[in-house]
Fold this sequence. Notes:
By secondary structure, the protein is of the alpha/beta class.
Amino acid sequence: MKIIEAEDYKDMSRKAANIISAQVILFPRSVLGLATGSTPLGIYRQLIEWYRKGDIDFGETRSVNLDEYCGLSPDNPQSYHFYMRENFFSHINIRPGNTFLPNGQAPDIGAECRRYDRLISDLGGIDLQLLGIGNTGHIGFNEPDESFDKMTHPVALKEKTIQDNSRFFKSIDEVPKFAVTMGIKAIMQAKKI
């Protein structure tokens, strides 16, 4: 593991964006594992800025996201599909057909989890995975006490996670109680994290 120190959030965002940018420039067909939440917003803003300046091209890049709430449509402003479109995808030239997120509305969530793992495998695996760590220590929606041998799976959200995420909803009652998330095993299969 290599630890890179940053002065502040802006510096961290720029350094992380540099790592992602180098990956895409050196390997344009990279598969990026992307995250949502507060942590990556500065990274996405920096990548958008460099894209607009012509420094980076996402035309061949593919992406897979860590997770999605169960029950929210992709057009729901609180869904991670919506988050990714609003905060990153609609500002760069990544092809919509090259962006993948779990389907939290699938009628058979178990089958959806297996489909998502197959999709990642069919893409050749994740070349670079971006992660944030939540207030409870969760990665994706994997709480710290979860098994490290899980692939993509459904999860009941912990009360603390629901409370933390309520800031994005009109009320805590609107926060979904379940999500689909890549498991730690799936995340650890990435070539770089």
